[in-house]
Specification:
Layout: E1 3-10, E2 13-14, E3 26-28, H1 35-45, E4 58-64, E5 67-76, E6 81-85, E7 88-92, E8 95-104, E9 107-112, H2 115-122, E10 126-127, E11 134-144
Parallel strand pairs: 3-8
Antiparallel strand pairs: 1-9, 1-11, 2-8, 4-9, 5-8, 6-7, 10-11
């Protein structure tokens, strides 16, 4: 039996990039982590792996949350619209309101094979795809698998 070392992260809220396009009127956070998100978290925790492809040190993960909160966000289009008024050309970027589902009180558990990897991860914060949605380490334990 191998020992696994589990690091628990949590924060007040988290936004995980949705599959739907930004121009949709309503989007919800993904309720799971894709392999590319896990790989990105691993690269943040272990920058020495930046040149390697794939997930090397995170053996497993579990994401949970209390509920999804609907929040409004003002967005702008990528391009500019131009209109001609007399001899002037006016440029504008239209805005719209998007309703976004945000995970409340997300808890993320990450499993590592070595105590050294878990300890290195335990002294760092992680982000769920946006820098302002920070999860801090709150606990570390070892388990038998």
């Amino acid at each position: 039996m191998n020992k696994l070392y589990i690091v628990k992260y949590s924060g007040p809220f988290g936004f995980i990039k949705p599959w739907t396009a930004v121009r949709d009127s309503e989007t919800f956070s993904q309720q799971f982590l894709t392999p590319s998100i896990v790989e990105g978290i691993e690269k943040k925790l272990f920058p020495e792996l930046l040149d390697e492809r794939g997930i090397r040190r995170i053996l497993g993960h579990r994401l949970s949350y209390t509920q999804i909160s609907q929040q409004q966000e003002v967005i702008q289009t990528r391009g500019w619209n131009s209109t001609k008024k007399g001899k002037q050309i006016l440029f504008e970027r239209p805005t719209a309101i998007l309703i976004r589902g945000i995970l409340l009180e997300p808890v993320l558990h990450l499993a590592f094979l070595t105590k050294e990897d878990a300890e290195k991860a335990f002294v760092q914060h992680i982000c769920l795809c946006r820098n302002e949605d920070i999860l801090m380490p709150v606990a570390m334990k070892n388990m038998q698998n």
